[in-house]
Amino acid sequence: MYECHSPYIVSFYGAYKHDKDVIMCMEFMEPGSLDYIAKVMGSLDVQYLRVIADSVLKGLVYLYDTHKIMHRDIKPSNILMNSRGQIKLCDFGVSGELVNSIADTFVGTSTYMSPERIQGGKYTVKSDVWSFGLTLMELALGRFPFGGDADGSGDKRASSGPMGILDLLQSIVNEPAPKLDKDKYPAELSDFCDKCLAKDPEERLSPKELLDHPLIQLDLPVDVEQWAEDIINTAAAKKAAQNGQPPPPPRIRDHSQPTIPTVGSQRKQKA
């Protein structure tokens, strides 16, 4: 992690041991994970999904091209946003370096695993693409794509869906990949998810190829700092309401630079 330096990867500052625990010091990311953001804000619109897709793909390309690393655990809780609206990848606990372009260890979060991984086959970097396609579709729907009701009602996220884990894994392997309703979602978003969720990994696009996809090329300006600010304020208001308290004053974006005292500046001046 010391060697990863990218605007699309959460920065790692160091670690130390405290009693029996190892404490890792990392970049502060508020409002936090996309999993948390989706719970606060609900399903996300295409302009925000485009920003997320662009950042995650660039993060994956950086890992692959610079460090020969696959993430291997892409999911909403491992993609974070900071207060500037930057989207970054985190949690490389199961990441591994590529050996001869393939890997055969069975790690990662099962519900976001690609069909070839679930079946125990060897896989390539395109397995991360499947996981991200499932993640992006979940953020668009507001529920986990597999095992949801036809009307999409209720909380059907991966952690609380009605299917048992074995039924879910069988569905991922044996059933057609989920698709977005083309009458409700932009064609660019639907096609992007389709390209990510190709059951045959040979037909799945790579992260670098997906950066040229029409979804990424859409001209949809977004004030990402305002977006992050809105999420933080909405989360604070909802938390206050749950506790029976009035909403706190909204956080206002501050672009001013803090004054950092120099050594000796606090000393008493001589008369």
TrEMBL record:
Any single Gene Ontology cellular-component annotation: cell tip
InterPro entries: Kinase-like_dom_sf, MAP_kinase_kinase, Prot_kinase_dom, Ser/Thr_kinase_AS
Pfam annotation, one family: Pkinase
Keywords: ATP-binding, Kinase, Nucleotide-binding, Phosphoprotein, Serine/threonine-protein kinase, Transferase
Signal peptide segment: none
Statement: the UniProt record of this protein carries the keyword Transferase: yes
GO biological process: pheromone response MAPK cascade
GO molecular function, one term: protein serine/threonine kinase activity
Domain of life of the native organism: Eukaryota
Reactions listed under catalytic activity: L-threonyl-[protein] + ATP = O-phospho-L-threonyl-[protein] + ADP + H(+); L-tyrosyl-[protein] + ATP = O-phospho-L-tyrosyl-[protein] + ADP + H(+); L-seryl-[protein] + ATP = O-phospho-L-seryl-[protein] + ADP + H(+)
Domain named Protein kinase: residues: 1-216
Biased composition (Polar residues): 257-271
E.C. number(s) listed in UniProt: 2.7.12.2
Region (Disordered): 235-271
Family membership noted in the UniProt record: Belongs to the protein kinase superfamily. STE Ser/Thr protein kinase family. MAP kinase kinase subfamily.
Name of this protein: mitogen-activated protein kinase kinase
